[in-house]
Amino acid sequence: MDIAAIEAKTKLILDKNQISSPFVNVFDIAATEGIAIKYRKFPLKSRSVSGFYFPKDKTIYLNVDEPSERQVFTIAHELGHYFLDHKTNEYGVYKRENSYQGIKHTNEKEADCFAANLLMPKNMIQEELSRFPFIKEGNPAALLSLRFGVSNSAMTNRLKNLGIVKR
Fold first, then answer.
1. Cβ contacts of residue 70 below 8 Å, gap of 6+?
2. d(CA 129, CA 116)
């Protein structure tokens, strides 16, 4: 996985969409690319699926039962598959699941990395921390997650990966 290339790709997308501060609106980014977002209630056996991208109709399908922060990350993840030009599975979809059995496939790791860099760019996090130094006290992920519109766990993971908070 080439993290530097993924960071560069997300920077280009943010620049193209004139996004320089949080909240990163993935709905607008998808619309700019001609990708529709549709909400679906998934069958019981597929409830662990957060969403998937179907390239044939350029649509991201989201699980209506997921929290909004999860849906935002799912859109960003599926956009990762799209922008990173990942090949689809045998059903012609990129599928996002909450839980994985075993180790994640490289494409899934790359799409997660893309989503984290798109929704929570390092430079935006650093800017927020310098503008509002009190955020560093206590639980910075709690406040930053609200500012960036992501889940607390997504922000915690991002801050750990950036070395801003200890693992």
1. 50, 98, 151
2. 17
Q: Tokens standing for 134?
A: 């009190």
Residues 142/144/148/150 CA torsion (nearest 10 deg): -30
Q: Which residues pair with 151 in a beta bridge?
A: none
Q: Any idea what DSSP says for residue 149? A: T
The span from the CA of 123 to the CA of 165, in Å, is 16
Nearest to 149 by CA among 124, 166, 127, 126: 124
Task: List, for residues 112-154, the tens digit of each pLDDT value.
Answer: 999 999 999 999 999 999 998 888 887 899 999 999 999 999 9
pTM of full prediction above 0.85:
yes
The residues, ordered by sequence, that sit 6+ positions from 126 with a Cβ below 8 Å of its Cβ are none
- Identify the three-state secondary structure at position 50: strand
100: tokens are 């994985």
Q: What is the model's pLDDT at position 165?
A: 86
- Could you count the other beta carbons within 10 Å of the beta carbon of residue 36? 12
Kindly list the strands in the beta sheet with 49-54, ordered across the sheet, starting from the edge strand earlier in the chain: 36-40, 59-63, 49-54, 94-97
Strand locations in the chain (E): 36-40, 49-54, 59-63, 94-97
